[in-house]
Design a protein that fits this description.
Length: 197
């Protein structure tokens, strides 16, 4: 691939992938480890970042685009300006990208608890407070297979835990009480049916 490190001087380009929505079977599967760090993987990461920014979202896991492998992309810092055009359609002007790629992540050293209102590109339109660890350490590999470890707190920690759940076949709704979970799942499926999705 021409640009071996897609994170350096990131450019918003790629192919838009279809985001799977609940209850797609791939969202319920435990994803397999990534074993080959090749051009195909780099292309998938590039297209996942593009799809995440265009959605728009701050994180996207491989199972959400139908690939059951242990990989997610994130950017919790980019700027997103909503622009309403003359014909009342809305588009987003995106800038200040700081993309991150986590491959084969392992969360450890979890501490504390925090509540945060989460949403998900696979359950669009539904937002609910989820209890997460306050701080975590995550070991992961980069796009070339090199090993790294970072400590994360606040939104970075929450987003990593949310995306890592997708690799375990867990959608954020399943972190809620059974009563709330059933209520929101019914609400989402009703909305989905109404929109003909």
């Amino acid at each position: 691939m021409e640009n071996s490190n897609i994170l350096e001087n990131y450019k918003l380009e790629g192919e838009l992938l279809q985001i799977k929505t609940y209850p797609a079977p791939v969202l319920k599967k435990v994803a397999l480890p990534v074993t080959e760090f090749n051009d195909e993987l780099k292309l998938l990461c590039k297209n996942m970042l593009y799809t995440m920014y265009k959605a728009p979202g701050i994180g996207l896991a491989a199972p959400q685009v139908g690939e059951s492998i242990r990989l997610f992309v994130m950017d919790i810092d980019y700027d997103r300006e909503e622009i309403t055009k003359a014909d009342d359609t809305v588009e987003y002007k995106l800038s200040n990208f700081k993309p991150m790629i986590f491959i084969n992540p392992v969360i450890k050293n979890t501490q504390g608890e925090t509540l945060y209102e989460e949403g998900c590109l696979s359950v669009p339109g539904i937002y609910e407070e989820v209890k997460r660890f306050e701080t975590i350490t995550v070991d992961y590999q980069d796009i070339d297979g090199n090993h790294h470890s970072i400590d994360a707190d606040e939104l970075l920690s929450i987003c990593i835990q949310h995306e890592n759940d997708h690799l375990e076949g867990i959608v954020f709704l399943e972190r809620l009480s059974m009563l709330k979970q059933n209520l929101l799942k019914k609400k989402f499926l009703k909305q989905k049916k109404k929109k003909g999705l």
